[in-house]
């Protein structure tokens, strides 16, 4: 088993560029690498500023914190691990971020249900479940396809193992782009017209 050191994880760009994050992951948490994070945000570019952003299965919150650094107006962190949520809070505190975020300490399906009940629509939703948990992927696709969670021009990004193929379509969602980097892959979805 390959051991990856995450102690150098940092904010790549924006207001908190270069700041290091507390990144000792609890068991079962696999943070998104800095390289893949950089790729994601290079693709998103100017879409992040002012966006309502979901960091789903947030782990240590590196993606959501990067979004806040780049000017997202609201970030929802959804993570069921209590230890991971504590690290997210510590990282936000260390950067002196006091507003513009919400931490939902619960599983992703519950968190998405809560967001739907509060009529939250995401401009960008990034979801990175444990790669072997097909049930989490399926429930997220279902919610984003049916529950009005994605803004009309919104973007859903699913990180998954490169060994698994992400569906081209799921209900109202259509895959618009895919990208492989290292062991990970990204699939980008937008709302399209159902056939």
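^ Assign residues to that structure.
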């Amino acid at each position: 088993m390959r051991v990856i050191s995450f102690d150098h994880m940092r904010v790549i760009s924006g207001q908190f560029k270069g700041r290091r994050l507390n990144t000792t992951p609890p068991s079962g948490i696999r943070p998104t690498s800095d390289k893949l994070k950089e790729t994601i945000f290079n693709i998103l570019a100017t879409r992040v500023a002012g966006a309502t952003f979901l960091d789903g299965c947030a782990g240590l919150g590196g993606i959501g914190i990067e979004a806040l650094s780049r000017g997202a107006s609201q970030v929802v962190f959804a993570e069921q691990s209590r230890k991971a949520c504590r690290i997210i809070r510590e990282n936000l505190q260390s950067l002196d971020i006091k507003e513009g975020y919400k931490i939902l300490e619960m599983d992703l399906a519950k968190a998405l249900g809560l967001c739907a009940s509060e009529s939250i629509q995401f401009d960008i939703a990034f979801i990175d479940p444990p790669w072997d948990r097909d049930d989490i992927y399926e429930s997220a696709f279902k919610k984003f396809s049916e529950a009005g969670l994605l803004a009309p021009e919104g973007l859903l990004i699913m990180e998954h193992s490169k060994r698994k193929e992400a569906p081209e379509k799921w209900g109202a969602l259509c895959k618009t782009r895919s990208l492989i980097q290292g062991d990970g892959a990204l699939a980008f979805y937008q709302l399209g017209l159902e056939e």
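The chain has one domain: 34-191.
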